Amino acid sequence: MTAVGKHPGLTPLSEAGEAALRAILSRNPGAKPRDVLPDVSPERIPRHVAIIMDGNGRWAKSRGLARMMGHRAGAKSVRAVMEAAGDLGIEVVTLYSFSMDNWKRPEDEVRALMELYLEYMAVERQTLLENKVRFRQIGRREGLPEIIQRGVEMLEAETAVNTRGTLCLAVNYGSRAEIVDAAKDLAQRVKRGELDVSQIDESTFAQGLYAPDLPDPDLLIRTAGEMRISNYLLWQISYSELHVTQTLWPDFGREQFLDAVREYARRSRRFGGLSDTPTAR
């Protein structure tokens, strides 16, 4: 591999760029951000990308297919995005897979979605292990079929030691429910005498969220052109950059993902200040 910051034909990296590239490669030696996006300095690559995968049903309807065919096509986009994220050295990708409101859909569609989830975990298990990607699920476990809960627990345990990236699926998830659960956790800790009310701050509260160890998303992508957040990671995306595309999720692949990252890299993130702040690593 070419030395850090010394890729032939590429603009030399700044000190921050070299440091970011070293951090990426130390965690994921197989990453190749300079090859994949030569026009983006490594410190401009997001650590965490969250995605609202929308448009599966519309994609299927436009082709005269059953809605489930759209969901199956969308599963292929997940693989394409994860491969691109791995090449860039992105640490976490969180996908809005099934919201708490999705239980309102027709019973046969919900059942088919649960079956597709089981199938996905079985099919992708080896890929996750080979690429050293950790699997996580956020959302309320209770209410999910028992076979799903067992499958999730097994896959999380099998991939727990993987360090090259994290695939996090939001299933039976709602952000308001997550915030309520965090508040209940704090209340119980105060009630047990483990915590004083005066000690509660943003950091303490965040520890009660479903995945407090994950960095907040730097970039939130929504497909199919919808201009809303849909009760997704409301606490965590307070300062995330938003990228909305008209592309339906089954048509969203590697190139569309790279375009979103490229656009993100051009943004100026001030976090309420006056100077631009690149992605911290």
Written description of the protein model:
The protein has 281 residues and is an alpha/beta fold. The chain has a domain at 47-174 and 219-264: Decaprenyl diphosphate synthase-like (Undecaprenyl pyrophosphate synthetase, 3-Layer(aba) Sandwich). It contains nine helices and six strands; from the N terminus they run ααβααβαβαβααββα. Helix 3 (56-62) crosses helix 4 (67-88), helix 4 (67-88) runs parallel beside helix 5 (107-130) and helix 5 (107-130) runs parallel beside helix 6 (146-159). 35% of the residues are buried.
Short summary:
By secondary structure, the chain is of the alpha/beta class. The protein is built from 9 helices and 6 strands. Strands 3-4-2-1-5-6 form a 6-stranded parallel sheet, with helices on both faces.
Helix-strand blueprint:
Elements lengths: L14 H13 L5 H4 L11 E5 L3 H7 L4 H22 L3 E8 L7 H24 L2 E6 L7 H14 L5 E9 L1 H17 L10 H5 L12 E4 L18 E4 L9 H13 L15
Parallel strand pairs: 1-2, 1-5, 2-4, 3-4, 5-6
List keywords for this structure.
Undecaprenyl pyrophosphate synthetase, 6 strands, 281 residues, single chain, 9 helices, globular, alpha/beta, 42% helix, six-stranded parallel beta sheet
Helix content: 40-55%
Q: For the record, what is the CATH homologous superfamily label of the domain at 47-174 and 219-264?
A: Decaprenyl diphosphate synthase-like
Number of helices: 9
In the CATH scheme, the class of the domain at 47-174 and 219-264 would be Alpha Beta
Q: What's the alpha carbon Rg, rounded to whole Å?
A: 20 Å
Structural category is: alpha/beta
| C-alpha end-to-end distance | 22 Å
Task: Quote the CATH topology of the domain at 47-174 and 219-264.
Answer: Undecaprenyl pyrophosphate synthetase
Mean pLDDT: 95
| Biggest sheet statistics | 6 strands, parallel
The residue ranges in which pLDDT falls below 50 over 5 or more consecutive positions are none
Strand portion: 5-15%
